[in-house]
């Protein structure tokens, strides 16, 4: 087992941004633990898949065990899995609320706590959260209270963890997204979503990959909430 080759754990890895991240990290010669509820086994010896709900701590435990047992270390965690349910505040159900907390908060907690415990053993590591620009810049007509509640919490946790672990060689950052062309957005909504950005277009998955890979190599950057949102955070 070659324990010198770096290892990334990526949640929400079966499609969209997560699947693209698996490829991007493999292209950088990382080995990858790919986590998702619906993920299938990989033919790539450098990728191990873990199927499960990240709201369940056992999924995080299996992911870390697989990474350490198969590859010998954990260097990066990308907390990509997340949900967005656009409803007026008074129409959210208890199930909506619990689903948000399970995926966006509990999933982050379990995965990050166990990953950082492994990173501490080697004195280095990097954690990245996927957040949203709606936290700082709500948009009329886009009801997003539960997204702001949970992703805003991740932004605060990102800064707090960055300070707590700065002297232990572990960096923590987040990417705050605008509207990105992923399977979550039907094609017929793209024109309307593009118009929400000052630069007049939706983001591409490649825009997000570029930003995460920048943070991966930016060793002097920690505690950063990097907005990749076509200018939404600057104004309207």
Automatic annotation (TrEMBL):
Keywords: Oxidoreductase. InterPro entries: NAD(P)-bd_dom_sf, SDR_fam. It comes from Stenomitos frigidus AS-A4. It comes from the Bacteria. Belongs to the short-chain dehydrogenases/reductases (SDR) family. This is SDR family oxidoreductase. Pfam families: adh_short_C2 (PF13561).
